[in-house]
TrEMBL record:
Protein's organism: Shimazuella alba
Pfam families, per the entry: p450 (PF00067)
Keyword terms, alphabetized: Heme, Iron, Metal-binding, Monooxygenase, Oxidoreductase
Keyword Metal-binding annotated: yes
Recorded GO MF terms: heme binding; iron ion binding; monooxygenase activity; oxidoreductase activity, acting on paired donors, with incorporation or reduction of molecular oxygen
Protein name: Cytochrome P450
Family: Belongs to the cytochrome P450 family.
Alphabetized SUPFAM superfamilies for the sequence: Cytochrome P450
Length: 388
């Protein structure tokens, strides 16, 4: 049985039972390497997440021109611990809570533009712009630079080969963006403002501060880690509610259940389907010998459908009581933006269902999926709706 981008779940069901730890020598990683272990079961995925000494995050090639290669998501302790501590001084629960009114305002403004039309493309009109505008606001991007920022953000959600101008165009844009952020970092160092970049520059632990390059790496990491994933969460929620009209109706009458509906969407259609590790030493998993230097794909999308953990895993049930999905990872690299992603999805869906209802796929056509195994992500998503 083969993997399918639009519906990887039958493949997971098969592999969970038949081949839960398996080597695939033809697998091509987005950063160019070939060959990987696939790990499908919940317990194995969690075990690898927890054992950061055996399974390293330093899988991304150290490319000099890519600021991402020093970001905390691809760094091991002790450097990872140091970076995470410093960043968490600035990226605080309060900084996230302060975004609440903005997320509400952004969602209302976006809906004002489509409400009277009775139709929209959810990806284009709602799910892409919300996280981009939230991160722009967090970072303190000025109004005049918003369009530029949006262009870069959309670009970094793609693979280098999919961008206009190919890998060269991608790295050129990354260079432009890095120069833009480095200028901004320089200005904020001289004159701090009330934004995340200024806070990051001031953060201090045991007399140590983040360098300009560390702040740059984090800014770019926010774009890569925080935009498309949240877009997928909002899209996947609306898609799943359309498939379950009774849930759509229930949530309109019981908006207080939106929070648990989002957790079930995270499990049922995880925005990120897998994440990488690289073996730091020879080891063994489920009797298979993994060699130092081997790449590993941890399939959270599959772990979240493991029937030994979730009863009837292929059913979407917002009243499920076991909410221990692994969509945000586990252990020392657990998603730093999880509270923000949850807040964005919660407000967006609350505002949406407060104003509109009876969502349906336009002309009953299935949405067009992005051809990506890493994400469960909808590219074109035309829907119709009624005003409430
Ligand atoms: C890490 C998923 C939204 C920032 C991670 C990891 C996962 C994940 C699985 C763990 C990576 C690993 O173990 O190697 C998601 C999903 C999101 C989301 C599904 C949306 C639904 C966000 C947002 C932000 C963010 C909105 C910030 C604005 C980060 C950062 C890390 C991370 C900085 C690295 C943490 C570390 O290495 O210690 N995310 N993420 N994420 N995420 Fe998210």
């Amino acid at each position: 049985m083969k993997h399918s981008f639009s519906n990887p779940f039958p493949w997971y069901n098969h592999m969970l039972k038949q081949n839960p730890v398996t080597y695939d020598e033809d697998f091509l990683h987005y950063f160019g390497a070939k060959g990987t272990w696939h790990i499908f079961r919940y317990d194995d995925v969690q075990k690898v997440f927890q054992d950061h000494e055996t399974f390293s995050n330093e899988y991304f090639p150290k490319i000099a021109e890519s600021p991402v290669s020093i970001a905390m998501s691809v760094t091991d302790p002790p450097r990872h611990k140091q970076l995470r501590l410093l960043i968490s001084k600035a990226f605080t629960p309060k900084a996230i809570e302060d975004m609440k009114p903005w997320i509400e305002q952004i969602t209302h403004e976006l809906l004002d533009q489509v409400e009277d039309k009775g139709e929209m493309d959810v990806t284009r009109d709602l799910a892409v712009p919300i996280p981009i505008q939230v991160i722009a606001k967090l970072l303190g991007i000025s109004h005049k630079d918003q369009d530029k920022f949006k262009k870069w953000s959309i670009m970094f959600a793609k693979q280098p080969s999919e961008v206009d101008g190919g890998a060269e165009g991608y790295f050129q844009a990354q260079k432009e963006m890095s120069e833009y952020f480095l200028r901004m970092i320089k200005f904020r160092k001289q004159e701090p403002e009330d934004d995340l970049i200024s806070q990051l520059l001031q953060a201090e632990v045991d007399g140590e501060k983040l360098s300009a390059n560390d702040v740059l790496a984090f800014c770019i990491l926010l774009l890569i880690a925080g935009n498309e994933t949240t877009t997928n969460l909002i899209n996947n929620a609306i898609f799943t509610f359309i498939e379950h009209p009774e849930v759509q109706e229930h949530l309109i009458d019981h908006p207080e259940d939106i929070t648990k509906a989002i957790e079930e969407v995270l499990r049922y259609r995880s925005p990120l389907q897998y994440i990488n590790r690289i073996a730091a030493k020879d080891t063994e998993l489920r009797g298979k010998r993994i060699k130092k230097g081997d790449f590993i794909n941890l399939w959270m999308g599959s772990a979240n459908r493991d029937e030994s953990v979730f009863a009837n895993p292929n059913e979407f049930d917002i009243h499920r009581t076991n909410l221990k999905h692994t969509a945000f990872g586990h252990g020392i690299h657990y998603c730093m933006g999880a509270p923000l992603a949850r807040l964005e999805a919660n407000i967006a869906l609350r505002v949406l269902l407060g104003r509109l209802h009876q969502f349906q796929l336009k002309d009953h056509k299935q949405p067009v999926m992005n051809q990506s195994a890493v994400t469960y992500s909808i590219k074109e998503f035309p829907v119709t709706f009624q005003k409430r």
